[in-house]
Structure formats: C-alpha cells, structure tokens
Specification:
Blueprint (H helix, E strand, L loop, with lengths): L3 E6 L3 H13 L3 E7 L2 H10 L4 E5 L7 H11 L4 E5 L6 H9 L4 E4 L6 H20 L39 E6 L3 H10 L7 E6 L6 H11 L3 E4 L10 E4 L5 E7 L2 E7 L11 H11 L4 E5 L8 H9 L3 E5 L9 H8 L4 E3 L1 H12 L2
Parallel strand pairs: 1-2, 1-3, 3-4, 4-5, 6-7, 6-12, 7-9, 8-9, 12-13, 13-14
Antiparallel strand pairs: 10-11
Pfam families: CheB_methylest, Response_reg
Subcellular location: Cytoplasm
Family: Belongs to the CheB family.
Length: about 350
C-alpha cells in the first residue's frame, strides 16, 4: 500500500518541522513537501497532488480559510485545519470546517511526553481519516500500524448489567461522531423539535473547540445546545456536547438523568470516547435510550452501541452513501449494534419516531 502524502502549510518553521517529524514517524504516511504560506503551497500543488493538506489559519499574504475555499473550488483535496487553540479564534475554525475542511486538530505542543504522544496519535488518525474522506470503498481500519495500545471503555466505566428502569422514565438520545461529524450533527440537531428527548453527544474534537461548536449549534437550532458541564441535567429540548479532552457519561438519580464529566485515559484512542458515552447509556438508561452513530474513522462506539442494543435500546447508524468516512457506522453494523442503517437526512426523524413508542 502506498503511503499517504501530506503537504504541511504553516508559517512557523517549528510547527512545520514538528508536524513533519510526527507524520514521517508513522509507517503509512509521509510529508511530501511543506510551504510557509498559501502562495507557495499553490506552486507546490501544481507539481504534485498531495493526498491530504494540513493548513494553518493565520498566515502571511493569504489567510487559511480563504485558501481553503480556493482549494475546495479549484483543486478539491482533503484539508485538516491546524490551530494553536487560541480560544477567541475558535469560531473562525468552526467556520473553516463548514467551508470544507475534513477535520480540525491542535498543533503539537512541546510539553510532557504524554501530551506529545497523544497529540501525535490524534494528528495521524485525523490524516488517515482525511485521506479516506468520500472514498466509496474504504480500507479496513483494522490493519492500521504504528498505533498505541487501544483501551476499551473498561478504563473509565466498568461493564455492568443495566440498572432497573421505570417504564415511565423519559427517553434520552446519545450520538457519537468523528470525521465529518460536525456537519452531520448540525443536520441532525437542526431537525429536532423543541420538545425532543434530551440529547448527549460525543464529537471527536480537541479541547478548546467544543464550546464554540456548541455555541454555533445553539444559534442554528430550535433546541438549546451547550458544552456539557459536570452535573448538568439532561432535559427535553436540550443537547449537551462533550467537552474536548474529557469523557462524557450518562448518570441517573431517581427519574433524573444527568451527565458526569470525567478525566481518564484515551478509550478507543479517543477522549472523549463514544464507547464511554454509549456504555453509560446502556447501563443507566437501558431501553429508555436511543443511539445514533454517525460518520467517522475507526471503530469508537461500535462496542458501546452493541451494549446499548443488548440492553434494549433502539439504535441506528449513518449509511455509507451519506457518510464522509464510513468507518464507525460500518464497524457498529458489523458488530451487530445497529438496528437500522439510515441516510443522514432520515436519522432525526427516526429518533423522534422511535422515542415516542
């Protein structure tokens, strides 16, 4: 299998070198070239077509979002936006996803070894996902190399039988997504009525971006959307987004559902992890839960969705035709966790329909 060729576009020589070292250390990808600004990048692209571009936002001569729009209109290539996580720029980066970026990652920070290793894994996974975006026949993610030990949801929440549930308990919806998920989640939530069941969401996204992501969804949807805080109640007509770099768990006290925000190791190579959210829904909501797994690379959420189905929950997965990357929904279907596979445009209606039964 040929390696994924990556063009790194960033005005910082340090960042270009750091990203190059991380990418070149992975056996299935390589940096084919670097550019210090978009104009240089254009000249590079004329002579070679990379599989993926990593792109900074703030650069001389032309900003990254303008360049992104030009790439999408002239030479469509999967683009990952790289940011230094400056909080007041987060809205700009979310808009970059809407302009056509496949994913958004944090620039690697030279801190502790653990942080650098986790950043490296996030970067490589994002590149793999971007390289597969919109390709109809995807290479199985089971054969990926050079990855760190993969932990299950056991590392955060122990496997357990579903707690006893009252027949009158309100329904809740849990949603998991990764690559391409920001737009998929938007489409689902925009179709939700104001009296919809409470919703908890895990979208693989770096720390510092989930708040602006939630704020933007809140401005677009009829329901209320916010970044989850520890102890927040799950209420009808409200959706809670897992904060970046923290796990989100469903908990129950009497008839009240609420969320716990928890630290812990990467699960299925992610934090937050869809498997953690889905397992907690299986344990504390059981048949009162409904689950949807949307576009994304890898298999995070596949095991958790099977646990939900085994606990009596209704589940669905986004179909291949409407997925940016048909990885997570495919693995959940293979494992037997998906009750119904649907186009993205049908998922919200299906969740509402099934929640009323």
């Amino acid at each position: 299998m040929s390696k994924i060729n990556v063009l790194v576009v960033d005005d910082s020589a340090v960042v270009r070198q750091t990203l190059s070292d991380i990418i070149n250390s992975a056996p299935d990808m390589q940096v084919c070239d670097t550019a210090s600004d978009p104009y240089i990048a254009v000249e590079k692209i004329k002579h070679m077509r990379p599989d993926v571009i990593t792109l900074d936002v703030e650069m001389p001569r032309m900003d990254g979002i303008t360049f992104l729009r030009k790439i999408m209109s002239q030479h469509p290539i999967p683009v990952i936006i790289c940011s230094s996580l400056v909080s007041n720029r987060s809205e700009t980066h979310i808009k970059a996803l809407e302009a056509g970026a496949v994913d958004i990652i944090a620039k690697p920070t030279l801190g502790t070894r653990k942080f650098l290793e986790e950043s490296s894994q996030r970067i490589c996974d994002a590149i793999r996902g971007a390289a597969q975006a919109q390709i109809s026949k995807l290479i199985s993610t089971k054969n990926s190399h050079g990855r760190s030990e993969k932990l299950t949801a056991d590392a955060v929440i122990a496997a357990s039988k579903t707690l006893a549930m009252s027949e009158t308990t309100d329904k809740i919806i849990v949603i998991g997504a990764s690559t391409g998920g920001t737009e998929a989640i938007r489409q689902v939530l925009e179709q939700m009525p104001r009296n919809c069941p409470a919703i908890a969401i895990v979208q693989h996204m770096p720390e510092g971006f989930t708040r602006s992501f939630a704020d933007r969804l809140n401005s677009l949807c009829d329901i209320n959307v916010k970044e989850a805080e520890n102890g927040d109640s799950l209420l009808k007509g409200h959706a809670l987004i897992a904060p970046g770099n923290r796990h989100l768990l469903i908990k129950r006290s009497g008839a009240r559902y609420y969320v716990e925000i928890k630290d812990g190791p990467l699960v299925s190579r992610h934090r937050p992890s869809v498997d953690v959210l889905f397992r907690s829904a299986a344990r504390y909501a059981g048949k009162n839960a409904l689950g949807a797994i949307l576009t994304g690379m890898g298999d995070d959420g596949a095991v958790g969705m099977l646990e939900m189905r085994e606990s009596g929950a209704w589940t669905c997965g986004q179909d291949e035709a409407s997925s940016v990357v048909y990885g997570m929904p495919k693995e959940a279907l293979i494992k037997g966790g998906v009750v119904s596979q649907l186009p993205l445009s049908h998922i919200a209606a299906a969740l509402i329909r099934e929640s009323s039964r």
